[in-house]
Amino acid sequence: MTMEAREVKRVKLYEQIVxxxxxxxxSEKLKPGEKIPSERELARLYGVSRLAxxxxxxxxxxIGLIEVKHGVGCFVRQVERRLLPQxxxxxxxxxxxxxxxxxxxxxxxxxxxRLAALYASQEEIEEIARLQEAVRDxxxxxxxxxxxxxxxxxxxxxxTHSPIFIRVAEALEQYWLESFKLxxxxxxxxxxxxxxxxxxxxxxxxxLFYRNPDGAYKAMKMHIENAIRKLET
Length: 233
Fold this sequence. Notes:
Layout: H1 13-26, E1 35-36, H2 39-46, H3 50-62, E2 66-69, E3 73-76, H4 92-119, H5 122-140, H6 146-158, H7 163-171, H8 173-187, H9 193-209, H10 213-232
Antiparallel strand pairs: 1-3, 2-3
């Protein structure tokens, strides 16, 4: 008999804590409004440092599963089941798929943003702004805004008024959406990424409002390159 070895994932300590607490929230062992044990108590329960616990709590707060009340403690949030994030670790195959499209987007979307700054109607820019608010609202409600983020980027492409750009984006729509899902899944392990994503969107939007094509190009390129860097970590 020949033994086959499967890939062994290296999971950080805080990711294990996030996965365990998430599971307890999903199974309702921890109920909405219930207080999470203190950092000191969690460190003792899990046999880890308080730094690992702090990172786990930051991640749980960033993905909207708990609310941090300074000076009081951490509490389980009421979150719709459809918004509950899944496991945060990506397989190497998933990372490769997400990276393939990010590399394409690095060359495609900055130019789309430049063209949108030149040719978008005021109504289209206002629609992009509304989509940005939808991204923000979903994140604040505890979601990861996968579809909202995707619609934001597609709206920028459509605002180019370029038939070729629009056709390419629509042809890649399902593949593109899968990449968004994978990137967001990875984002759950990076507590600061969701607020940064919102700020990066806001910078792109600002340059569209100002009709600044070079600024829009650079802002979108920075946004995609930051996503690549995060995926590589």
